[in-house]
Amino acid sequence: MRNFSFILILFLAGLSIAPSVRALPAPSSLSEREHRVNGPAAPRATPKPVMQRRGGGSQAPRQSITVVIDPGHGGYDRGGIAGQRVAESVMNLDVAQRLKAILQASGYRVVMTRDSDVFIPLGTRVAIGNSYRDAIFVCIHFNATPRRSASGIETYFYSSQSLGLASAIHYYVAGGAPSANRGVRRRGFYVLRNTRIPSVLVECGFLTNPNEAQYAQNSSYRQKLALEIAHGIQNRESVARMAGATRIVSSSNSSTLEPETVPLQPFIDQTHYRDPDLSRGRHRRSSKSSKSTSSKRHKTSSETASTKSSTKKKRTKQAED
Q1: Which residue of 48, 78, 91, 145 has the lowest C-beta tally within 10 Å?
Q2: Structure confidence by residue, pLDDT tens digits, 14-36
Q3: Structural domains of the chain in order of their starting residue, each with its CATH number
Q4: DSSP label at 80?
C-alpha cells in the first residue's frame, strides 16, 4: 500500500512539471544554443585600429609585364616633313609620358627609350626593348604628308605575335578618336622588324592636317590618346582569335577598363614598302658612293686619255726619226 501511494505521488508530480518543460522555446540559432549551455559570453575586446597608408584606397595589382614605350624621333630629329609647324618629336614624348603615368598607376613596370628631348638611334631603341623578356614594345608617333587632307589613325606591326597587341590598341585608339580609321597595317619598320617581343607602332594622327594638328596641341586630347593606348595594353589578352568587324567603342575617362572581347583586326600587308628611316640613310650612302664612283671613273678616263696621248707622241717621233 505504501509502495502504491509513493508511485501515485511521483506520477502526479510528473504531470505538474511537464507543461513547464514543453513551454521552453527551442533555440533559434547556434549562438543562442551556446548561450543557454555555457551562459552569457564574455564581452569581446575592442579591436586595435589598423594603420592605413597615406593616399587611401586599395593599391593597384602588380603587373608582371614590362611595357617599353618608345617616343619616336627626338633631339635634332623633329620628325615629320620639311616646313611642318608642329614638331612631331615633342608630341610623341608628351603622349608617351602620359601613357607612362597611366600604366604605372595600374601597376605596370614601364621603361622609356627616351624621357627627354634627345636623339636615340634606332639600334639603341631596339636593344632596350630586347633586353626585357616578358615585355611589350609600344612606339608612339604622329603622321605627316604633303597632302593636307590626309587624316586618320594607323597602327603598325610586323611579327605574328604582335597582331593581337596591334588589334587591341587600334580598337581603342581608333574608336576613341574623332579621326578616321585607317586600319592596322603590317610593315617592316626597323624597330618592329628587329625586336623579339610583341611590338607595335601607333600613328596618332596627321600633324599636317589642320584639324588633327589642332587636336594634338590640346593636352586633353593627348591625355585621351594615352588613355586609349593604355586600354589596349590592358585588354591585349582579350583579343578574339577570329577576325571581326571594327566596332566604335564608348569613350571612358577611367584609367582601367572592364575586359571585353576585342575583335582581331584585319590588316593591310605593306611589307614590300621600304622603311623610310633606313631608305634615307641608304640614299645618302648611295649618293656618296655614286659620287666617288663617278670621280674614280673620271680619273681613270683622264689617265687613259693621257696614256694614249703619250703613246701617240712617241709613235710620231719614231716615224720622224
Answers
A1: 48
A2: 555 444 444 434 444 434 444 44
A3: 66-277 (3.40.630.40)
A4: S
